[in-house]
Amino acid sequence: HIITNGTAPTASVGSASGSNSVVTISGDDTAGTITFTAGTNASAGQIITALFNKAYAKAPHITLTPASSSAASLPVYINNANISGTSFELDTVSAPVAGTTYVWYYQTIQ
Q1: 13 close to 21: Cβ distance less than 8 angstroms
Q2: In 56-101, which ranges are continuous DSSP H helix?
């Protein structure tokens, strides 16, 4: 068992998330759940930014797993060009459906 604790990263919606989109993160810097509801006029691109509560010394490795059928059907990736010791981005290659909620589990390892 790996047991983690601490404060959840701060979540913010990205430029492609659509109007009135919502994102929350529960968990901590090491592991947790990202819940995202797409807004209207969402598009391909950056949908989420997560800012770690406590910075890592260097960019960590992040694993993302779909936790809902909607998340499993949306092609997303952690944008390697924008991972740092302080944050990471979740990007999509196609537009999320407005009003749909997507859920992913994440793990962060350095």
Answers
A1: yes
A2: 69-73
How is residue 81 annotated by DSSP?
Answer: G
pLDDT tens digit string along 57-89?
999 999 999 999 999 999 999 999 999 999 999
Q: Write the burial class of residue 46 (CB in 10 Å: 0-12 exposed, 13-18 middle, 19+ buried).
A: middle
pTM: 0.95
DSSP assignments along 5-23, one per residue:
-SPPPEEEE-TTS-BT-EE
Q: Is residue 40 exposed (0-12), middle (13-18) or buried (19+ Cβ within 10 Å)?
A: exposed
Cβ atoms of 30 and 101 closer than 8 Å? no
Q: Would you state the structure tokens that stand for residue 62, as one six-digit string?
A: 């992040």
Distance (Å) of CA 8 to CA 18, 27, 67, 81, 92: 23, 5, 18, 23, 23
Using DSSP's 3-state secondary structure scheme, residue 80 falls into: helix
